[in-house]
Amino acid sequence: MTSPGEAPFLQPPPGRQYVRSFLFSRRVDAPLSRVHLITRVVLILCLSAAQLRAMNTAHPDLLGALVLLIPSLLIFVGSGMKPLVARIYLLLAVPTLISLFLAWTIFNPIPGTVIVFQHVVYHGVVTLGLSLWLPLWLAVVVGYYWWRRGIINGLLLATVLIFLLTRVVTFPIWVLGHVPFFHPLAISVTDRGLLLALTKVVSYLGMVLSTMALVVTSRDVELIGALRQLRLPQPVIFFISTMFRALNLALTDYETIHQAQIARAINAQPRSFWRRLRDLASIAVPMVAMMIRRSSEIGDALLARGYSLRQPQVDFYETTPFRWLDWLLLGFSLLLLLLAVGPFPGLTVLLQRG
Amino acid sequence: MMASEANDQRPLVSPGEIATTAARGVETAATPAIISTSGLWWRYPTFSEQAGAWTLRDVALQIQTGECFGITGPSGAGKTTLCRALLGIVPYHTRLSHEHYSQHFRGQVILQGQPVTEVTANSQQIGMVLQDPENQFLRMSLLHELSLGQQIRGIPVAEITQRSYEALRWVGLEKLWHGALYLHPSDLSGGQKQRVAIAAFLALRPSILILDEPTSDLDPVGKREVIETIAHLRHDYRMTVILVEQDPEILAAFCDRIALLNNGRIELIAPPAHFYNQRSVLERAGVSAGELTRISWATGYTFEQRPPLTFTEAEKALQPAITRGPVVAPQSVEPAAHDVVVRAEGVTYTYGDGSLALKGVDLTLYRGEMLALLGPNGSGKTTFAKIVSGIYRATSGSVNVLGQDTAQRKVRARLPGLVGYVFQNPDHQLFCRKVSDEIEYGLKNLGIDAPQRKLRVKETLAAVDLSNYAEEDPLFLSKGQRQRLAVAAVLAMGPDILVVDEPTTGQDARSVSGIMKLLCNLQQQGKTVLVITHDMTLVAEYCQRVVAFRDGALAFTGTPVQLFSDKQALQQTGLRAPTAVALATHMRSYQSDFPLLLTVEQWKEALPSNPGDAS
Questions:
Q1: Model-level pTM?
Q2: Which ipTM did the prediction report?
Q3: Which structural domain, as residue segments, surrounds residue A3?
Q4: Contacts across the A-B interface (CB distance below 8 Å)
Q5: Hey, are the CB atoms on A256 and B425 less than 8 Å from each other?
Q6: Which residues of chain A have pLDDT under 70?
Q7: Which of A262, A302, A307, A315 has the highest number of chain B CBs within 10 A, making it the mutation to test binding with B?
Q8: Are residues A45 and A80 located together in one domain of the fold?
Q9: Can you give the pLDDT at residue B344?
Q10: Residue B614: pLDDT over 70
Q11: Which domains does chain B have, with CATH numbers?
């Protein structure tokens, strides 16, 4: 955003390696921070659109997804995110992507040339009837509620117990009738299913990395500047700016309020799902009280500075000009957009044709 | 104290010069009034059809150009409302319809010869710095915080740059100019934020600056920074300053005149020397007086028939007592041996971002003691208290509370039943819409049965004098009542140890006395009380032991006498002795073995009574 020749107040504080952004912080000299915010947003939107095209269910383009992962990785590395924060995000992303892979592989039966595994789990018919395991299941649920005052865990425990029991013991069943419902469901793993799942995982990974980089590197000052350049009305810009500051304060309040709940023994006993919900809802009382008190003071502070919706504000080092790097990246974004919406068959198809 | 040091240099007003136009008086000075009010009445609109009580009642003031005018009074007296009226926020920005004005607002406010109107707040004539530094930091960078008001007024960029830098220099923060664009509010300390707020107004070049309790939310370091800034504005720039403050030492040090606002009415306007001579008026209003004043009230020694305001005056006032014979220390009762309730060994705590908050703390707490946890913000005292109460888990080391190891999750989960933690701001810890439900909340969490809960709710409400408010919504209680409710909600859970975070911040003398009386009663019942505080007078008056933190480690453990007589420890921990102690040290130039008297009570016991004192 700034160069070494600029005024001291526009340069990073001496000795500082990281500066705060929307979330967490980023390196002062992060390569991505030199790109205009509008360019960053356009680039990541176009890249994501191209990645969405690559994971098209009808024509998954694994090679294209892998190639598009490279700019996503470059953006992520160039974001200047703190290594610890990056590791935490990646750690959170990995199980999500694994679940995504498993979900697409197992629960989306896509016909392929090779069937790796197939098992019908639902035949498309609901059987109505009575069985001896039903009162047993109910007894476990009621017993658990009587013991721990919890329902959700009781339901889970009863279901697992009965499932295991019915594998070992055959209970008598009195069938009353069959009702057709929905279509049959099968767990089916095919070669095309695996390919699609892999393409989706690679594409989503790319989208997650670049979006994270955008959120982590952007600062509110840049956003206000970008909105000014986009000629948004002053009240809208002011609302967004105040919202960011208020969010910052609300997060601090939330942390203290949650600690106050711990100090009032919310964890002293095992809590049911509903109890947890109720505890979460009770945070609203102090949060709202704090917000009202804060908003009243923020209002006074604004009035004392002379704020009024009608008066336009002078731009003071909020907007930044577009540089050659921005134009270059905007050109690249256009290319990505062409890949996303144009008549491009995908790299995998091109390679196969070749 | 900084205030007292400044006081010694301040030209004092002799009793002969003191204006005697005290209660509701309007000064007739040669200099023109920059701001004046006459017959000012205001009451806030309510949601019900019934009209609310008047917040301001017939307020008449005249503030001279270049004057530092103090306003003090108990909580809820209408001090902030008066400031809002001077700025024109009340009534012009309260969305009252024209026909409703007369039901809510009467009187006139004149600013520089012109009536205050709805555009006054938007003018460059007057600025207002509020109590909470967080709520007035409106942008996410220091540079834009300084420039906001100027941007609104359409000042050219080059001038904004120049004015912003000058303003930052005026408040002594020019070192933050390099990189101002990148400095986030959370990169600044409370004192720095408050000085930035002052700078943001200075950049607008106002004629009058209103400071509404600017130091009450700050630690001693921040407080000192802001006080020095105010002194700078007074002496070097001769700015008209309206200072709303509870701290009598700050008021006495900086104000030319002080007004007492009580229940919306101006009850007294006088220069500090005369103001603090009105003991009955001040005590009736529940306004705090400085320790020098209180020593004078307690012992009867005066300087020119009034309480002294500076050490020089106090020395002269106490001269007769010393000439009558050596002053001896009153006999103090040594605290008896106690059972150990908390044993912490090698406790460390690391925050999520990797920064070390505690670096191996060893500390033992005993049953029935009142212990002060001291130290600047970020020194680790609150983190330690949160570990003891099970809110945080120590990263390493052991914390044993009443024989239980807090490393175990189950122990920590049940710890609130043994260790109660009262947060600084009551609004952070009130979760229910009924006072009785609030007390019951923690009891339900502990699994206490309904009949027992009802009994405890009744007993606790009676103990904190809130029985009449059992069905009220906590949000509609006064701040003092909310603070008592927050303590009560924790007390009801029956803890043996009570941690109270800054119990006196922003409270008036009456509320402070109420809270401390409650804590003393609990201590007498055998409970251990940990007080996290910056208030050294409170430490001297109530605590038997002090623990001072510095950079995540223990810097001092001992009694208040040991701390206040150890200059090195004070310097190391950034603490300052209370005025009573500082005066005792000062008196050693007259009597080399002058005892270290910590409190006003000790001064009263140690000094021979003044035969000339009529009272």
A1: 0.81
A2: 0.85
A3: 1-109+191-218+321-354
A4: 226
A5: yes
A6: 1-5, 354
A7: A262
A8: yes
A9: 96
A10: no
A11: 290-330+578-615 (no CATH), 340-577 (3.40.50.300)
